[in-house]
Amino acid sequence: xxxxxxxxxxxxxxxxxxxxxxxxxxxxxxxxxxxxxxxxxxxxxxxxxxxxxxxxxxxxxxxxxxxxxxxxxxxxxxxxxxxxxxxxxxxxxxxxxxxxxxxxxxxxxxxxxxxxxxxxxxxxxxxxxxxxxxxxxxxxxxxxxxxxxxxxxxxxxxxxxxxxxxxxxxxxxxxxxxxxxxxxxxxxxxxxxxxxxxxxxxxxxxxxxxxxxxxxxxxxxxxxxxxxxxxxxxxxxxxxxxxxxxxxxxxxxxxxxxxxxxxxxxxxxxxxxxxxxxxxxxxxxxxxxxxxxxxxxxxxxxxxxxxxxxxxxxxxxxxxxxxxxx
Length: 326
What we know:
By secondary structure, the chain is an alpha/beta fold. The protein is built from eleven helices and 14 strands.
């Protein structure tokens, strides 16, 4: 099984499935553990924050303590069109633990191309939705929404926040659906979208069976794979609720982290482990938007970086170019 994302949803999913004794679980996430995560990301602790651990590494450590018989495969990576096919190799189900539509549409493309079912799940504020997708047998994400909602038209975790118990409800419901599929009872899952609001205490189903008979979907019936082919993608990503931007180089690179740490040591405070290098800037001209929280540049071996202290992609790209290069 492949779990894409090890944030709030992903933590509850991984915990439930490992406790249930799934045979193997491959977990992919691009991020590291921060103090603000602990309000809702139940696998992590303050010790993980202090050690600057990537989320999947901290999750693996915790999950092995829960059930050592489950094979955990942690992957510190940013899921994109260049690697999802390989990450999904030999799995029977893909679970959505992400926080952005771009990756969800990519998962949808790969699912349609490979025939691997997946479960779409999202949560903001106190509510969210869950939808199992079986390629060729049920509506896909693009049947429901041909394209992602335009910016500013939907709530985000920045504008609406995230209620911890809502995450638990949605992820637990998703985990129950996953267990039905893994146990061979997919016939018990109907083609419908389930809407859950933890604060209002409501639980609704929307029947999507009519979409299944429509031939208007550009992906199901037109064979369009915009995200899998790399035609729809972004080089920078604003991370929800983090005042951070992720920068990805146009081509994959490979950094030797000890050499990079030495190179950056004259630019500020450098901390590192075998997974990442972090530069905390001392240069006041590169100060963050909030002086009380200095700018931090966290760089991974594949050249990807998360710049904390700005939500402006242009500023983040400038800092990346100045300190990392390219």
